[in-house]
Write a structure and sequence with these properties.
With about 725 residues, the chain is mostly helical. It is built from 31 helices and no strands. α20 runs antiparallel to α28. The chain starts with a helix and ends in a 6-residue tail after the last helix.
Length: about 725
């Protein structure tokens, strides 16, 4: 660690333009403002290095506090709503043109971080299991990130570039004022950390043992969250959310000191956090010079090998195996509940439950096959549900056609009956109808892709958003357009580039997870890490080509605005081809949901079927991303709704998922257009447009919060 810190510090002070040899660093600092080298080193590089060290130490210590307090090694500020809340508190006044002094920004960040972390504990319940808190935090973080995306859409070009760089975590253009602004918060946080460390060691024993030792676990956990907020918020106010330092540093401290406790891990975690940020800032400055890349992208990249090492040597708390088992039981209970149609966390009332518990091996295998491929829904019931959902799709389509600006519903009806002038006919037939069809097709693609992924991986938390497929597709499309290999006016080239990026993202997740790709918790955290890495690379591409940012930002959020017939003519054959391929795999996927052993007993090659299924999912996701951008939560939550409504037989649930996804995206797009009209009228801003991706993220987060809240604690 000392060697890394020394090398990175010397490199941070020496490298760059102008280059200052290491042996002249002391002289350059003493020269001060009398020479160019003295100005660069003393006024720019030294405060930047100190800020990197202080920020890394704060994030590393905060990460250890959160992990020990929640007794969960996957608890990180990025997955608990703390970092997103702090970033929202700082970015909102900038977009809304509120003139506030710099000293107020840490207070705004503390308020936002407290809002995110407090909402996580409030919704999950302080006494709930760590896994419940983790899932709730992921949902809260997604909702706050959706609000940040809306702010980015509202910002002008200059503010957009500043906000985008800030949200990725950057140390550029930081001065001594930023460093001195951190010390008052450190004077508050450091003594609190010293007092908190022994309590963290007690919390590792479990709530019952902590109560027996005189520690009130709930109050101690709230105090730990408050300390973490005070550590994270000032750093986020100055540097933005520097990703994954709070995850990597605690695991490194445990790796080098496996027999220690929280008291000894705390200073080591702070030290490793400082090293991680200092090391990451060197390539952030020099990799694409003279353009600076965000340090947050490089810290996420450093988290990839760190995560693999943590998987190999991680020593869980005393109740670690039981906690993992509870989460595993929750994941299996979610799948079983969806297969039975009883809902998440509900009790299985089907007669198949008693059969599955019988000692007869043959009888148990027959019940397992029935549970995977069967379902209580009869043919007439399924037909009625398809009919009702199709009627709802018609209603949503009608609302979307009339929800746009510039024309009243009466004018739209007149155009559909053959009337109206040329402008009105152009708006309806050349803009609104293709937008409607693209929304329906993209929603169907994402929902089918999500159901295929969840069935192939046997993971209820799998989805294009958390398996590297969607961020990989975004990276492929943005890179191809920036390099001139594709253009937004040539959708086919964008689809091919997105498909290649989606395959790369899925492959990266598969390699990172290794043999543990079947564990829902591990897949979730690996997926978030892969998404952070790929998002960082996307940011690097956009920072090199800043002119692309204004035209791409809504596409990064997920939008159907500006879609024309060319997009639809490319999307529908692509969607039809790969959806048909997925439906042909319905039988093998149904067997894969039961387990590889049952699939092998039925004569199915599990690896081959899973590879074909992943190819279909990547292709469907790439087509949807190329058409409408990165819509969140559609591929994660719609499949659960489809399986609950249409049963676990994928011959029924795959078409049901396609129809359900189409309805959800179409309805969300109609709601986005209506909301845009209301907000534009209220704010007197004709250019305000709310992207559909922000609404789908909020809707998905709300559904996930409801699922966690209504699921009994014993299932986690």
């Amino acid at each position: 660690m000392v060697v890394l810190l020394a090398v990175s510090s010397v490199g941070a002070l020496s490298l760059g333009t102008p280059y200052v040899p290491p042996y002249r660093l002391v002289a350059a600092v003493l020269e001060g403002e009398t020479t160019l080298a003295g100005i660069v080193v003393s006024e720019l590089r030294v405060p930047r290095l100190l800020l990197a060290l202080v920020a890394g130490a704060c994030l590393g210590a905060a990460g250890l506090v959160l992990q020990e307090a929640l007794r969960n090694p996957l608890a990180v500020p990025e997955m608990l709503g703390v970092s997103s809340g702090a970033a929202l508190g700082v970015a909102a006044p900038l977009v809304l043109a509120f003139s506030l002094p710099a000293a107020v920004q840490p207070l705004l960040a503390i308020g936002g971080a407290a809002l995110g972390g407090g909402l996580t504990l409030l919704v999950a319940g302080i006494g709930r299991s760590p896994s419940a808190v983790l899932l709730t935090g992921a949902a809260v973080a997604a909702a706050l990130q959706a609000a940040l995306l809306v702010l980015m859409v509202m910002a002008d070009q200059l503010d957009l570039q500043l906000i985008y760089r800030y949200l990725l975590g950057s140390l550029s253009a930081r001065t001594w004022d930023d460093v001195t602004g951190m010390w008052p918060w450190l004077l508050v946080a450091v003594p609190a950390l010293v007092l908190c460390a022994p309590v963290l060691s007690v919390l590792r024993l479990g709530d019952e043992d902590a109560q027996a030792l005189g520690v009130r676990a709930q109050r101690a956990r709230l105090a730990a969250l408050a300390i973490a907020v005070v550590l994270i918020a000032p750093v986020t106010a100055v540097c933005g959310p520097v990703a994954w330092v709070g995850f990597l540093a605690p695991h490194l401290s445990r790796w080098f000191n496996p027999a220690a406790g929280a008291v000894r891990w705390l200073p080591w975690s702070a030290a490793w956090g400082a090293v991680v940020v200092a090391v990451a800032d060197v390539p952030a400055r020099l990799a694409l010079a003279p353009v600076e890349t965000p340090a947050g992208a490089w810290t996420a990249l450093l988290g990839v090998p760190g995560r693999r090492r943590a998987d190999a040597v991680e020593r869980p708390p005393p109740d670690g195996p039981a906690r993992t088992g509870r989460f595993g039981r929750y994941a299996r209970a979610a799948v079983r509940a969806a297969e039975d149609g009883s809902g998440w966390g509900g009790r299985r009332t089907s007669h198949r439950s008693s059969i599955a518990r019988s000692p007869g091996r043959t009888r148990a295998r027959q019940s397992d096959l029935a549970a995977c491929g069967g379902g209580r829904n009869g043919g007439r019931t399924v037909t009625r549900r398809f009919t009702a959902l199709a009627a709802l799709a018609v209603v949503c389509a009608a609302v979307e056609v009339v929800a746009g600006r510039g024309m009243s519903p009466v004018d739209v009806w007149d155009v559909l009956n053959g009337g109206g002038d040329a402008t009105e006919r152009h708006i309806v037939f050349q803009l609104r109808l293709p937008r409607l069809l693209v929304a329906l097709g993209a929603g169907a693609c994402l929902a089918v892709a999500g159901l295929v992924l969840q069935s192939a991986l046997r993971n209820p938390l799998a989805g294009p958003e958390v398996t590297g497929v969607t961020p990989g597709a975004v990276l492929g499309a943005v890179t191809a357009t920036a390099l001139g290999l594709a253009g937004w006016d040539s959708p086919l080239a964008v689809v091919l580039a997105a498909c290649a990026g989606g395959c790369a993202g899925a492959a990266l997740l598969w390699l990172l997870a290794g043999r543990r790709h079947g564990d829902p918790a591990q897949t979730a955290v690996h997926g978030v890490l892969v998404s952070a890495v790929l998002g960082g690379f996307t940011a690097m591409v956009l920072l090199v080509e800043p002119g692309e940012l204004g035209s791409v930002v809504q596409w990064l959020v997920g939008t159907t605005e500006g879609r024309v017939w060319e997009h639809w003519h490319l999307l529908w054959p692509w969607a039809l081809l790969w959806s048909a391929a997925a439906w042909l795999l319905a039988g093998p996927l149904t067997l894969l949901r039961c387990g590889d052993d049952i699939a092998l007993a039925a004569g199915l090659s599990a690896r081959r079927a899973r590879s074909l299924a992943l190819l279909c999912a990547v292709a469907l996701t790439a087509g949807a991303v190329a058409a409408v951008g990165a819509l969140g939560f559609i591929g994660l939550l719609v499949p659960h709704l489809a399986v609950a409504v249409f049963g676990a037989d994928l011959r029924r649930s795959l078409p049901g998922a396609a129809l359900t996804g189409a309805v959800v995206v179409c309805g969300a797009d109609a709601a986005a257009q209506l909301s845009s009209r209301l907000l534009a009228t209220a704010l007197d801003s004709g250019r305000l447009t709310l992207p559909v991706g922000a609404l789908t993220a909020c809707l998905g987060a709300a559904v996930l919060l409801l699922v966690v809240r209504r699921t009994p604690s014993r299932t986690f």
